[in-house]
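Schema walkthrough. Field components (list of strings):
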Amino acid sequence: MDNLDDNDIATLLRLKRHEQPPPGYFDSFLHEFHRRQRAELLREPVWRIALQRAQDYMLRLNVPALSSYPVAAAAILVCAAVLSLKVYQSPDAPALAMVAVQQSAAIAVSSPPRAAWSLSSSPISARDIGSMPVRASSDSTKTHRLAAPPRYVLDSTPVSYEPASFRF
Amino acid sequence: MEQPRSDEDQQLVARTQEGDVGAFDQLVVKYTPRLYGLVYNMTSNHEDTNDLLQDVFSKAYKSIRGFRGKSSFYTWIHSIAVNMTLNFLKKRGRRFNLSLDDVDASVHNDKEFLELTQTSSPVREADLSELQVRLNEAMMKLSDEHRAVVTMFHIQGMPHAEISKILRVSEGTVRSRLFYANRQLQNYLDEFRKNPVS
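Field assembly_structure (string):
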């Protein structure tokens, strides 16, 4: 009994080309592909679809360089760097703005209208009084809260949890 | 097996990149039978082949904007198919069921089939259909990488150079894998012919 040689093996393997899927398989393959594509699209998150559309838009504008990942990533990094520089260079800016708003509100509440100042007989300028820093009520409450715990908290437990122990 | 014309593919790829979905459909129709043969002979399972093939085309569609034409579309899509199938086989491990397709009736008109069955040869001594079953089993005993090379060279009829591009290995590696795989297949099949019951 002779052994199989390379040609026999090659011939046998070539016959495997005749192993074919069920009839009509290749005809229905494209329909199945479309169905799966639609199903996949429904599962995709909205941001990815939006990103994809943005890329398509860039391609249609014939700016392919901008739609490439390295350039897009670089652009995002530059934007992030600029934003973070602006934020970290003036860290107290938002807090100062808040204080200024609070102070102006307090002045508006506590000081009389400018028309009344001119009626004053005092030589002291009402304008000076008006421009003196006035503490807003919220400032003092904040200070108290920082110094001591609020009175209505007993042993760190809200009063409402122990109605029997609450005394006026 | 003849390679499709690459200029025709290039046009279809360019149209797909411009957003013409129909052009990609033409590529799918064109390459499905060829890629089916590749994936099927690597997995020996029809259902797995179907799922893998759908994933291959889905991935190709998503990545086609990044295709710059450095290689032909033929090489590119085959690379995707081979890599995805090898990854799948690694995950599947040794747990698999053969789900073989029927041999098409056209085999009886095949010149090589007629030669095998009409002339005296070692193959003729064994039952041919049984030998085919054994051949599939022997194929599954090869490593995934060796099976990929055997499938592309012997079954798909690709040249060594094309296989080396698809697998991104040297031609020498392709030839060495083929040599080793042929030896293994011969051993399995000779063993069967000497001990048909085993």
